[in-house]
Amino acid sequence: MGLLRDIGAYLILMRRVFTRPEKSSVFRHQFFIEGQNLGIDSLGIVAIISVFMGAVVAIQTAFNIDSPLIPDWTVGFTTRQSVILEFSPTIISLFLAGKVGSRVASEIGTMRVTEQIDALEIMGVNSAAYLIFPKIVAAVLLNPILVIISMFLSIFGGWAATVMTGLGSSVHFIEGLQLEFSLYDVFYALTKTIVFAFLITSVSGFHGYTMKGGALEVGRASTRAVVFSSIAIIVFNLILTQILLS
Amino acid sequence: MIEVQHISKAFGDKQVLKDVSFCFEPGKTNLIIGQSGSGKTVLMKCLVGLFEVDRGGILFHDRDFSAMSFNQRKEVRKEIGMLFQGGALFDSMTVEENVIFPLTMFTNQSREEKKDRAQFCLQRVNLQDTGHLYPAEISGGMKKRVAIARAIAMNPKYLFCDEPNSGLDPKTANVIDNLIHEITHEFNITTVVNTHDMNSVLEIGDNIAFLYQGELKWTGDSGSILRTDSPEINDFVFSTELTRRLKR
Prior knowledge:
Number of strands of chain B: 10
Order of helices and strands of chain B: EEEHEEHEHHHEHEHEEHH
Number of domains of chain A: 1
Helix content of chain B: 25-40%
Structural class of chain B: alpha/beta
CATH topology of the domain at 1-79 and 191-248 in chain B: Rossmann fold
Largest interface: A-B, 17 and 24 residues
Helix content of chain A: over 70%
Structural class of chain A: mainly alpha
Order of helices and strands of chain A: HHHHHHHHH
CATH class of the domain at 1-79 and 191-248 in chain B: Alpha Beta
Shape of chain B: globular
Strand content of chain B: 15-25%
Number of strands of chain A: 0
Distance between the termini of chain A: 33 Å
Oligomer: heterodimer
Strand content of chain A: under 5%
Number of helices of chain A: 9
């Protein structure tokens, strides 16, 4: 019952969020701030994670290939496929659920506790749209860019690790990268990323916006935001994979 | 003028407001007083629409606020300024940006016009040199004054103040009280102040409503509150040994 009530409350909140902004200039200003906070500020850590993630995928693949029947380009091919199909869109989104989700929930939750949301409401501002909508738009537009950067850096990390450890040659790795490349895989990855970006910001915004209590509850709301947006990502990953790849 | 007509509000089984009727008059500092838990904050939140009433009506100059939709209320809300207990200033904005915010949202004024208006409001609360500071960099009393400046930026018809001097030293509390009183008379605003501070009651109470366990028990002004025979209000006003000794 509790879950159903939460889903109902989430949908009601989303109806308030997706209304025309009161002033487009204010929305633009908020969008650029959120773009900086949620997107650009995540670039550094996404880059580090991606390079190491790609390197680990390549090394593990190379170590697990014993048979001489398996061609040398397999490491590059497997790294590319793993990174594009799953690691960059899903792992980076799960990471962003932690980083961005906790930030969104605690920021909005603190505004709730300190009556800043009440102040917005009394002024006549649609506080849900003012606070959550720019975050959703910023994440939906910027997360795909982060994921594309992550794809390139992961593949670079895989290539560097393969070549530097002597587990394969650069020529074979690049051959594997180019083999049977399908643009649809990138489309699938970016579609997932957009859905995940929406889930991260809307679920976290919901937990921050609807929290009640004091400072302790802000922490709880932040934790709930990360947990529920991560679960939502995993569930929708399965659903989207079934829909888009079947 | 704000008319409260027979409003009731309950949370679950707990009846917080019981058939309260009162008239908040324009150009006067109207006080809602009572002990903690008497329903003052709930009444104020009902007045500004943060809580919905279960029964009764709230009329802002004959406009039934409690029966309005969200969008209809937006028009009335543009005429409302509110001072929250903690100030409720936006942390991410400077003092000046806080005062400018409602003007940006609801007017088409130029940047210079908004800055001039913000400067006027900040001057009115004696904080003309703090526009560049963030809320975290100013004291509690200054936060309240900035909140007053933000509340009057849109030339409100109605000003609501929730415990305006809680957490302040007596001198600063007096400054805030006087500021609210002066602004009310200067701009002919219908001001509603929610307080349990007896200094405020005696200093600025033009029109007072005393709530006791969710019921309106007494109405009057700061002059008559000391002479009333109401046991509940005497218990509230003369609650300390010092005030009882002064009465004797």
